[in-house]
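Blinded run. Sample ID left blank on purpose so nobody reads anything into the name before looking at the predicted structure. Input follows.
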Amino acid sequence: MIPPILTNPTIYNITQTTQAQVAIETSLKAIGRPGFILLDNSIDKNTKKYSSMKEFLYQLTCLGVSLGVVIPVFKKGSFAIARKLFKDEAVFQAFKKSDDFNKFRKLSQDDKISKLNEINASTGKNYELNNINEDLAKGMIEVTSIAGSILGLSILSPLISRPFIRPVLKTLGISETKSAEPAKVDVKA
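Blinded prediction complete.
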């Protein structure tokens, strides 16, 4: 059952971008981490409830930052940066936006040639398929996506979630419980 799912071409295509991988991983964390906290029987009920909801809200914040900020900003910015760095590359001259390039990349060879003929007619330039460095463009999109994911998940998400999570938990009636007894330290260990 699992091998056909993992080898499915649709699943393969979905997982070929950094954005999709971050979204899938964060979604799984939003479900898995709170679930495992709730399954832990060594924690009291109120602490489990608080910790699992806090983790769930944090992972939702991460997902929101990734989908709402990082992907749009870095996806758009990747081509703008690449166009300045690689001024002579035909791929960055022919395509103004990463969305246009990504659509082109998915076309068949014949459709790519037709698309380049359309671009040539509208721009008055002569781009050929062998001059379009698709790997360079795809690499720039992925590098900026990775950089954006690192920035978004390690810096932006904690900054955004810190003032957001506790008021939401308080509104939901979930409060952090403090232990009445301090933890005992095993001095013999």
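Unblinding after everyone has recorded impressions. The chain has one domain: 18-171.
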